[in-house]
Amino acid sequence: MLWFSQKKIVDLDALVLEKYRTDFGLFQKNRFPLADADGYSTTMEKHAMVLTLYRKSIFSWVPADMFQYRDFILEACVELPFSQNARQPGSGLVAGSVGPHCASGLIFRYNNNENFYYFLLSNHGMFRFDVLFNNHPMKIIEWTSTPHIVAGSNNIRIIGRGSHFSFYINDEWVAEISDETLASGKVGLAAQNYEEADTVSFKYTSFQLDSRPLEVEKSFLRWVKYIPAETDSRLSLAKTLIRSGNFTNAAVQLKKILKASPTHREAGRLFCETCINLTLFDEAMAQVDLLIANDPGNKDASLQKANLFYLTNRFMEGRDFCRSLVADIRDSSYLWNLLGNCEYALGNWDKAAEAYSQACAVEPGMPFFLSNNARALERQGKADKAAEAYLAAADILFRQEAYTELEVIFPRILALQPGTDAVKALKAKMLFHENKIDEARALLEELVAKKYANSAVYFLYGLILIEDDKREEALPALQEATVLQPDFALYWWRLGECKRLLDMDYQTELEKAYELAPEDPWVNNLYGLAFMDSGDLYKAEQFLLTALAEAPLESDIITNLAEILFLQKRYENAFVLIEESIQRNEDAPLWNLRGNLHVRQGEYPLAVGDYEEAIKLEPDNPLFRENCAAACIEADMYSRADELLVGLVDTAPSASAFNLLGNLGMIRGEFTRAQLCYEQAMAFSPDDIQIKVNLAALFADKLAYDKAKALLDECLKVQPEHPTANALLVRLRRQFEVSLSCAECGRTWWVARSLPPQELGKVFGEPPAEAPAGKCPDCGKIYCIACAEHHLKEKRFFCPDCDSFLKLSDDQLKYLLIEYLKKDIKTELSAQDQAQDNPPAQDPAIFKPE
Question: pTM of the predicted model, to two decimals?
């Protein structure tokens, strides 16, 4: 009897202790899945696994498909596409081809797509270490420069032992740190593409993992405990940790440097600063004393010691030490401020004010020193001088938009000078910042009326007037701001923008703003618009590219640049620009912009998709919903359009929303609903020509000729060349009217085919020359007054061909004549109202029924 052993079932998520290695050979086991996913793929080449990214701004990872690990030694060799910024040890730039900015590395302790660690090295010669926890990226070690990344293949080694991780590139220590976020998980590959190329590829030529406890412990002791790390590498890591606020781990690295090199000046200085941030003042003082002992002329160490005296409340020692340094470091505002702090703490208000004044003299633009000086002056009882210093500090803080600091000193200013114009100006600025526009407007109007000389007052008042759609009234205020502070680019830019929107020349303002701030994105944006207005699209594009480089996330700048590309018929470039911008920052206005461009190309279904994305991001934005509804109508998606518009007129009613709902009603044949919507639209915007034309078209469909003609006449009186109105006029004439013409000059009249019987009567006075004079009863020819005046007999008009008197027997001719007489009377009365001292030469003609 034969017995067959059952196949062992492998738990792919088991926590295992093993050694695994692959060189990605043809017959070797490969634990990484081959994939062709959205934005990336993994493929096998000869002795290499290739991870390829197909989009800009994409981060992808490929976990192994089996086993989890807690402690491990993880190694891999990866080839990066190198850029000119990467370096080789002991040399300058890398020798090799130039590559786009990208990064590659490893993931470990992978639990799922929302929880794992990742370590990356970039072809700009830098590395980083982060954890994704519950789908939130958390920075552990931010980008850190290292000389150990080389062209060609780079070996990465990571030793994970408990919460401790150490990292090595090409057998050189680059970092170590502790983190307890994740305890165990799978391992894998990872890569990041940035903005410089659409596609990048990374070759992994080997991958090795060892999770056996004895081997992990041996490697840990060898690499972490016994093999010394380069001082420069530790220092570089410490600086990165300090920049990210991780002072505890930075202190660990700096202590290791100082243990090996106690006199290392930069490490000592950084350790002192780190201890201060950790409130370890005794350790900081010991270190700073050591720095001074090794280098008595170390001014930075001396200033740090003075600061430590103040921080540890040793004010008398701090004062005396500061005074001992004044002779050698007289130009240090920091030293004078420290001296002022010590004197202030000792209650020496006069000496404190004197020291703070010296700090202000050395660095006059520092609001912190001004406010300190104000505090000391206030303690001296010098309220006016204290208020003056506070106000000077407040003015700088306002221009720096440092509103938190401004809120700290504002109560003191109110207490010292509650009713002065300077305080009112500051209060107005605060109210404006808090978006309390009505309150700010009242104060600003009062100050402007008093001609209070403060540039920000006039500037903010101008902004409020612009917001109130009173640009012409805003101009004088903006101009006064530039007079009071002519060296501030923001004022010139805003004045230039205001003039542009008023269709005024703004070249002077634009040039001045550019002179003061040539790199400012909004100044360059305005310059780009100026060249676009003049038709120079190439120069416009150059300025807008500069603006975009300085402010890559500003949707207004992206919109303007996309418009330039569209005008140049570079449609694909415009869409690529928007797509890349959306990848950097998924901003609703960018989706709306792309939808607008699709509409201009007649691609309405695509536009609907973009508008829907904008609505997802900003569901309460009425513009996006209205745009989407308009595109839905064009794409025959009537139900969605109706849903959007009904919601819109309930939450944010407007003329355009009701007009679109009326258009939808017309398409569906719901004429009563459409009429109500158009009438509501006219209630919101009585002078909107397009709404009137739409309503006139509806009346024409309902055969309400008189209403349609009356609305159409109103439209054409305002805009005689309006294309839709003229098209509707042609339709009305073809459907409801008949044309009559003068037999002699060809003058044409249009009149309704169907008219009620017109009254009989007589005309008294001289009718207008363009009115009909009558019709010949024999030949049927019609003449206008201007032509008939040459054919008078017995003071009556006659036909020159038949010698018969002209008659107004037709209702159409009577109607036309009466309408001309009414128009003539209205014109004459209007002229009399405008010039009462100049009576007309003759009375207008009138029609009297018999």
Answer: 0.63
